[in-house]
Fold Acetate--CoA ligase.
Amino acid sequence: MTSAADTSELAAFAPSPEFTATANAGPELQAAADEDRLAFWATQAERLHWHTPFTEVLDFSDAPVAKWFVGGELNVAYNCVDRHVLAGNGDRVAIHFEGEPGDTRDLTYNDLLTEVRKAANTFTDLGLVAGDRVAIYMPMIPEAIVTMLACARLGLTHSVVFAGFSAAALRSRIDDAEAKLVVTVDGQWRRGQAAPLKPAVDEAVDGAASVKHVLVVKRTGIDVAVTDGRDLWWHETVDKASGTHQATPFDSEHPLFILYTSGTTGKPKGIIHTSGGYLTQASYTHHNVFDHKAGQDVYWCTADIGWVTGHSYIVYGPLSNGVTQVVYEGTPNSPDEHRHFQIIEKYGVSIYYTAPTLVRTFMKWGRDIPDAHDLTSIRLLGSVGEPINPEAWKWFREVIGGNQAPIVDTWWQTETGAIMISPLPGITATKPGSAMAPLPGISAKIVDDDANELGAGGSGYLVLDKPWPAMLRGIWGDMDRYRDTYWSRYPEQGWYFAGDGAKYDEDGALWVLGRVDDVMNVSGHRISTSEVESALVGHHGVAEAAVVGAADETTGQGIVAFVILREGVENTGDTLIAELKAEVSREISPIAKPRQITIVPELPKTRSGKIMRRLLKDIAEGRDLGDTSTLVNPTVFDTTVFDTIRRP
Ligand code: WTA
């Protein structure tokens, strides 16, 4: 891209004067952050209600474990619910719930408060006390959000497990956090069918020593087994509980949630987030990046609460700001591809935050579908989860954003807790595909292997060189892994290594290029290669497996696996491949199922025995192989199997 093209592009996507005139974020934010970063964050913390004021903004003496807003006490749920009721906004709709079969339910802040109080009373009756862990395995229904908030209200640490994960994945997360309670549903609606969920929980908790109770919301009415003494129905407990409950404050550093995410090794990491700093940054970013105006906007983040985007931009950020938001249970093509656009039209959605993979799917379906709807309510669009390609960016803006809505391409991670790099919609002239710059108060650098900072035109690793309020506080039960994973790459500098590659273009705009480690990004979901490899090796027929992420037009990356069979195991072709895919679904989730599995006689290895993934990726993406001379078995590529993959 030449400089001249960049400049005209910047002019093309500059904020309109009308947008700027009413934007929440003005240039004073950056000025204040530049002048005194910690004082800036102290000001942002005033967005929240503190039962006890903090005495120190940041204590990083125990680095890399930070303490933010030291000495402060607050109740996260009080900030997300009670506060709005007390301010006289109890009648405002908090959640427009749209069930997949078409059932709907509006919950006002008054309703939400009553529900959260009832759930909190029920959890207390079950003997749970602050610090206990609760696993949540639920689809996108209001009770899932109520459960998270009830946990926050009582100082219980929740661990939401995406309802698309398998029983085995749920079990390992329950065990790791020693959860005492699991909250779930009988089943969930998926493409017009009631898909059972409770049986997966029964399988997961069988023999799980920590679990005392399973609380079940009746969502679909399908028949499920009930274990006496352990299982309880939501409608027989929560619905009948008292709606009175006083929120008590917790320390700013009280653990709010654990969220498991994939790393470079097989075992998922339980990322720990705490209260005051996390909520401050979630609230600040939601207000400024989305330009959210309480009482006016209708906001819709299409994520699932099973991911961090659902935590920070459906639950904590938006509700702390008194949002009115849409929560939709189902898939975008149920009953047909019009669903999202019908919902936007029906509720007058003004802020729409989604993932590039969905934008590309909409593009594939064709613009006739969105064009059949009145989308003029939309005034801002957001993107998250993976780099958004310029073509999808432009389509998103033109077709969904009526050629006028600013797009905020937000870079962040489960670990960062909240948005870190993004345009500010009233200020930043954007470039399609670039996340542009760190937000005021956030510091990021692009550096090379030797910790040299790169400038315009430079390409290297993305690091966060200063602590931020919503940063993770560790990995549950494994603080060594925390130090090792994120802080050991640049130990002298004390930088956080994000695992992403990035570059500055000639104008200094920041482009995130994708993971530089063995983490794949499939439809915005993080999946580690070794997690899938160990699931494959779990199959009795498999001796060895190598997995790579290959470029995919719709999903960003697709999972491609190469498998060596054990001696004497018969290659039954499609039958075996189907079995292997099922094994991955069972061990992890259908989202981790390889797009392609190829049985091979050998894998390319270096002399030290390391599988050369780079070569496998080249093969999977149909590229010519470069220098293979360092392979111990260079002839591996001569075999016909590899040849067919190379030239499909
Ligand atoms: C990628 C999701 C480019 C990145 C919030 C990161 C992005 C990983 C963007 C975190 C973006 C997320 N542009 N890449 N706007 N947003 N990523 O933990 O590789 O599920 O490291 O958090 O997604 O994924 P996670």
Observations:
- Residues 465 and 517 are 19 Å apart (CA to CA).
